[in-house]
Amino acid sequence: MSQPDIIVLAGGTGGAKLARGMADAAGAQRVAVIANTGDDIEIYGAHVSPDPDLVSFWLADAIDDRGWGLQGDSFAVMDALRELGVDVWFNLGDRDLAWCLERARMLAEGLSVTEALACLNLALGVRARVLPMSDDPVRTWIRIGETGWAGFQEFMIRDRATGLIEGLEYRGAEQAAPSAEVLGAIAGATAIVIGPSNPLASIGPILAVPGIREALIAAAAPVVAVSPIVGGKVLKGPTAQFMAFAALELSAAGVADFYGELLDGMVADENVAGLATLQTDTRMDDPLARARVASETLSFAEGLRG
Amino acid sequence: MSQPDIIVLAGGTGGAKLARGMADAAGAQRVAVIANTGDDIEIYGAHVSPDPDLVSFWLADAIDDRGWGLQGDSFAVMDALRELGVDVWFNLGDRDLAWCLERARMLAEGLSVTEALACLNLALGVRARVLPMSDDPVRTWIRIGETGWAGFQEFMIRDRATGLIEGLEYRGAEQAAPSAEVLGAIAGATAIVIGPSNPLASIGPILAVPGIREALIAAAAPVVAVSPIVGGKVLKGPTAQFMAFAALELSAAGVADFYGELLDGMVADENVAGLATLQTDTRMDDPLARARVASETLSFAEGLRG
After folding, report:
1. Which member of A36, A216, B165, B189 has the greatest number of CB atoms within 10 A?
2. How far away is chain A from the Cα of B71, in angstroms, using its nearest Cα?
3. For A51-91, what is each residue's pLDDT tens digit?
4. Within 13 Å and on the Cβ side, how many CA atoms surround B191?
5. Do B94 and A99 touch (CB under 8 A)?
6. ipTM for the predicted complex
């Protein structure tokens, strides 16, 4: 089979780990990841695409132990910028910067973000597909009471994700279209898995692109979500703040509420009333655990089919 | 004295060495270098300005032994680009890249190239002024018989300065204006020295900016040139090819012919008939030699005054 048929929707680490497990469990060529570009940022002359890149680096076994960026990367350029007096609030390794500078060059030459990432991933040896949700720019903006509107990276990194979220916008989403690759992957899927990423900040921007939610509902494949809440807690990132902003319960049921009619089932370590649930240990701390969660999720989804 | 009064016109290495010697001989605060921006190139998301930067790195004692770039710089980003399959024909160290990325950011924020370099040089501790000849873009293009028109860097580095030069254009020069800083420096000068740089490729673009040649002629200060030809040879770069293209003799007399009525005197290791000449050893291989050539040149120029 040359077309991928297992689709993972992913933001950052949670979705990336599930995608990695899925590639191990089912084979990389069966996996296509639809990744959030709402966190993209243009900085240092480069086009940085944190979520699609995190997924790519995980798939290539190139992710650094620190949880982001390329393994063993150096930081000579950031150090030099600091020497020049620049307030380096957004850290990027040298190899990571090269990756993002080369993407910016490809975009300037007219390639789409989908094509540019495909070229980069070919060089990195990634065999699964990583598909930006759209070739059009969508940017997630957050409003915090004290500081006002900020781009997602500014909120997350510069402002350390502090403060009460009072607003959330997926700017550009209404004018954006899903790429042909994304629509093709959804239409050809046998299983669609929403990764354990922040529903509002990571999956929300994907679903905000007109046509993607509709395509997921219309797809022949079952749609299941893996809950990002483990043992009643969020493992990483400001998901709790976003769930509170959306008045959602911090539980698998709250996540299910957010996705609504999209879902055919939920994978979580707790039961969700009124929805097909695979109750299992969803921690993915090592390769075996990642492959197990992926494999169980895939079997569960296949069992929900038609 | 707070305003610099010794003006050096410079391209790359020759002019930079003379400027360094002048700063040692007369004090950095007396020196302003008017530097060629015709070799500038936008690449890797950065704004690279080879001649003004070479002068700056020389003035900061930060030039690497290889003759370009910052001392002891690493090349992690270039290595990473090569890993991605990029044909890296233009090499740039990591700290050098940071320098040029930061300039690009400042330009995008609306600073002029003059202001951006002033900020960068402040951080590097350069006390002499380095003034790009214009805040407007001027780009030197070369036509080679076999390969056609190429930008200066492409000709010099990618094509290794090979082939017969059949055309030379300072594109954008006619629409460019000298910066206020350049005109102010020339007007306030007590001595103006054209460095031993390639007359056509390095000094030519400066003189092609409308108003600079006129300002040099109108200046109260004497204008002297240091010949780039030493022992009948060119020490560095493709000066011979350019002199041949312009049908100029490869000698101090040929250089004097190119500058014409601009010159009040010439510093060279050979005599120039019909022009006040300081005949001296013009090699500048070490700090002492650089300071001596600078000091003798300055005394010679001062002797020509009034």
Report:
1. A36
2. 13
3. 999 999 999 999 999 999 999 999 999 999 999 999 999 99
4. 25
5. no
6. 0.85
